[in-house]
Amino acid sequence: MALRRPTTLLTSSTPLFSTRTPFVCASCTLRHARSATTDATDSPVESTLSPAQAARVPKPTPFVPDPQTFLTLIGRSLSSHANKFSSWEELFTLSSAQMKAKGLDPPRTRKYLLRWREKFRRGDYGIGGDLKYVKDGIAELRVVDVPSLAAKTNAGTSQTQGVAQEEAFASTSHTPGFTKLVLNVPIGMKTYKLEQGQSTKDLKKPQGVTLKEGHIIAGSYVMPMKGSDGSAAMIKVTEGMWEDRRGHKVHGGERRRAETLHKMRVAESRKARR
């Protein structure tokens, strides 16, 4: 009699093949990771900026509209490297290594540029950086009579008009209720017109500019206009306006000062003997 074939297959609780993960050498893993990183680096990079990079690019200002002007202002002959930066975004996103690859040397020059980039991001400008009305790198300043705000007492209430005479003597314009303020005005305008939604509280004098003798505009790189008696002036983009001046050694510096002074005294005594 023939044997019958079983109707059910045998099952086992243990799998026929092992499910353990194969052993991988640590050095092999590191080597594969390095090759993957190299491949990713060699791949072409998109020209568009990432959101993180775009957030770190500050907006140009009317006084600093392009890389050429920025490099001119910070000085140290960096304006000669303006052709190495094709755009404003590239100026504020290139790393020190990328600048070196473009031929921007020596290292202290790149470090100086990186430091000024961070200052500009924070809004730490030099003179003229906060000017709004600029044309062809020239801004105009004028002394304008501005209504003075009512002074506040300790109780927080406005002072009465009983001190109007005292305010008149305190005003630099000798006009009751008015004071003089240096403002950046559009080119050719002899006064300042408030913009829509703007009040006298929003008016501020440009950074680095002062008012002397009640009518004279003073400050670094401030050029008085002819026939204005000092009440009108111009500020023009100039090479090295914002430059951080480097010091120079006196008598050989701190380490060699005593030696240098001794040699100078010896030389003077020899001349005196002759």
From TrEMBL:
GO cellular component: mitochondrion
InterPro entries: Ribosomal_mS41 (IPR039603), SAM_Ribosomal_mS41 (IPR019083)
Signal peptide, first to last residue: none
Keyword Nucleotidyltransferase: no
Domain Small ribosomal subunit protein mS41 SAM per the UniProt entry, residue ranges: 67-123
Location of this chain's protein in the cell: Mitochondrion
Biased composition annotated in UniProt, kind: Polar residues: 36-51
Keyword Lipid metabolism: no
UniProt-listed SMART domains: IGR
Record key words, sorted: Mitochondrion
Family of this protein: Belongs to the mitochondrion-specific ribosomal protein mS41 family.
Name of the protein this chain belongs to: Small ribosomal subunit protein mS41
Organism: Cyphellophora europaea (strain CBS 101466) (Phialophora europaea)
Organism lineage string: Eukaryota, Fungi, Dikarya, Ascomycota, Pezizomycotina
